[in-house]
Amino acid sequence: MPADRRDLLRDAAIEVLAGSGSRGLTHRAVDEAARVPSGTAKNYFPSREALLRAVAERCVELYLAAGERLAARRPPRDRAQLTAFLAGLLHDAAGPGRDRLLAYQELQAESSRRPWLSAVLDPVAAADFPAFEQAQRAAGLPVTAERAAVVTLALHAALPHLLSAGPATLAASGLDDPERFVRALLDTVYPHRP
Questions:
Q1: Residues ≥6 apart with Cβ < 8 Å to 13
Q2: Tens digits of per-residue pLDDT, 102-143?
Q3: How far apart are CA 14 and CA 179, in angstroms?
Q4: Measured between alpha carbons, how far is 17 from 55 in angstroms, rounded to an integer?
């Protein structure tokens, strides 16, 4: 199986999940999105479970690759750089990373009914906790595991709202301005000392 054809199909499956949700994820829809002959996805991923596993594994691969790119950058050295870094992640979620995150959210919902899928996806969210804690520590904040977890959980909780982009919800939560949202979050968790 050529890796490039597998990746083409798995990326098309992400596109289908993002556009049509879990119910729309069919072999035929993936073939159409990938612009390959009918039956191609079925040849590579013979069952719906195999297709779900393949797209989940692709989401994990893309997440880990993004994490490696971020790790190669200089860590934030202060609160302002940390704010810019975290706000940048939120901007990416609402922009270029939107399809991948929508697919991931669909897969997470599906994993509540398929424990094996939860096991495939778990490394994604779990990796954010130490990575974000390290970023907060590098920025010179008085980090505890609990404080770092609160920041990570707040960012995770923001994602569905950014993806659905309801203007009233974005305004009510402060997510209509990701920089302001992150500043307020950090100020709440790590108040400035007089």
A1: 25, 30, 33, 41, 51, 54, 55, 58, 103
A2: 999 999 999 999 999 999 999 888 888 999 999 999 999 999
A3: 28
A4: 9
pLDDT for the residue numbered 148 = 96
Report the phi/psi class of residue 25: left, alpha or beta, with left for phi > 0 and alpha for psi in -120 to 50: beta
Is residue 118 within 8 Å of residue 153, measured between CB atoms? no
Task: Name, in order, each residue with C-beta under 8 angstroms of 165's C-beta and a sequence gap of 6 or more.
Answer: 94
State how far the Cα of 55 lies from the Cα of 75, in Å rounded to an integer: 30
The confidence score (pLDDT) of residue 129 equals 93
Rounded CA-CA distance 97/107 in Å is 15
**pLDDT value of residue 173:** 92
